[in-house]
Amino acid sequence: MKKLKENIINFLDNHMPIVFPAPAMITLFIVVIFPIIYNIYMSFNKWKIGLGSPKFIGLQNYIEAFSDPRFWNGLKVMFFFSSLSLSLEITLGLLIAVYFNKEFKGSNFVQTIYIFPFAATPVAIALIWRIMLNPQIGVLDYFLNLVGLPGSLWISDARTVIISLVLVDVWKWTPMIVLIILAGLKSLPKDPYEAAVIDGANAFHIFSYITVPLIQPVLITALTLRSLDNLKEFDIIYTITQGGPGIASETLYLYSYKTAFSFFNAGYGSTLIIIVFLLVLLFNVAMNKIRYRTEGP
Fold first, then answer.
1. pTM of this prediction exceeds 0.85
2. What angle (nearest 5°) sits at the alpha carbon of residue 54, between those of residues 51 and 57?
């Protein structure tokens, strides 16, 4: 028994760089790497779930995707939704973070209350907003009518459904952006601000020429982190509209889910999700390059 313990200890001492990371590496392979490899494999196959086994067809799924009008609609909806929501979240997040960075009475309480939407479950938030946006029983139309404004169909109209979903996404995720930017603002040096005040700079000039340039790497980091979820937004859109009315709010990510689990076309669904994965990867590589340039050598 003693000899066995010594052998185990010697093995751990000699292979420590491999043994300790092994559980994390195994978990990473099972949870992340294997699903990606399997989806890549399935994207080259034709397989209807429950009907036979996968059949290798090469690039046919990819060729079909680029000639599929619903694919291009999903791509357009995804980028329109993401560009609008991300730009609003970054802009509002910066302005709110700058305000929260000042000392005022009850600031800690206000900041605590403000992060509640970020802490709530996305599906629960989406269910509440689905009721609020209902044109018959929704509270938003009720308030519009109170002030003499006409109501809106919100999620029932193809012209307003994306704007409505952006409203929910911005309300839900802007607090996360605020927390990231606020942390960056707290770490900024005080000297440039003191020099600007001595030189007679007003609040707008200080914000434009000092705060924004100094906080730019943090803004890019916040945009990069948020885009990882935003470009493949699912919970809010599926819970509120399921891609409707029609396919007006059907993103490419949602289309890939429907293809695989509603139409049971696993091969084509894998192709769509791989395309989404590559788009998100390319966007984040580009954002990281921009961040490195802003941070300098």
1. yes
2. 125
